[in-house]
From TrEMBL:
GO BP term (any one): regulation of secondary metabolite biosynthetic process
One cellular-component annotation, GO: cytosol
Transmembrane spans: none
Protein name: Ferric uptake regulation protein
Signal sequence region: none
Residues reported in the UniProt entry to bind Fe cation: 105, 147
Natural source organism: Planobacterium oryzisoli
UniProt key word Lyase: no
UniProt subunit comment: Homodimer.
Domain of life: Bacteria
Localization per Swiss-Prot or TrEMBL: Cytoplasm
Record-level Gene Ontology MF annotations: DNA-binding transcription factor activity; transcription cis-regulatory region binding; zinc ion binding
Details of cofactor binding: Binds 1 Mn(2+) or Fe(2+) ion per subunit.
Length: 158
């Protein structure tokens, strides 16, 4: 993504947040926008501890409680998506930006010999999954709005 597109996306997500806060009657604080911009500057999944450390390294004065509360707002506004990858961390939920992302699924690769320590998360999109979704909709007479699919494993020995 080029710099101009990034600035345009930044304006869009800021406006989405502004409208959401106004509709819900929440305060429009600069910390919320700073946290949002940090999240949308990331190229990977993150947890609250990751985000907190990043904010501290950049000398932002924001508490972990503020981050937790802001994460809940972003989830409800559709700006981020929550995942439970099964990792063994103090904060077991992972998040990713979601406003511009297309539907995708995840392959979670654990480090060999570890107790669910994640080595890598690979995002993928397989058109066959869309066919499965449509078959389920037809079989059960429903409309599926979204789904989450996770595969877990370790790398094969070479």
């Amino acid at each position: 993504m080029n710099n101009q597109q990034g600035q345009s996306n930044n304006q869009v997500i800021r406006e989405v947040l502004r409208q959401y806060l106004q509709e819900k009657g929440f305060r429009n604080t600069p910390e919320r926008y700073t946290i949002l911009e940090e999240i949308y500057g990331m190229e990977h999944h993150f947890n609250v501890d990751d985000l907190y450390l990043l904010m501290m390294q950049k000398k932002y004065h924001v508490s972990k409680a503020t981050i937790y509360n802001t994460i809940e707002i972003f989830l409800d506004a559709g700006l981020i998506r929550k995942h439970q990858f099964g990792e063994k961390t103090l904060t077991s939920s992972s998040y990713e930006k979601s406003y511009f992302d297309k539907q995708h699924d995840h392959l979670v690769i654990y480090k060999k010999g570890s107790d669910k320590e994640i080595e890598e998360i690979i995002e993928f999109c397989d058109p066959r999954i869309q066919g499965i979704k449509e078959a389920i909709e037809n079989a059960f007479g429903v409309n599926i709005d979204s789904h989450s699919l996770y595969f877990y494993g370790t790398k094969k020995d070479e």
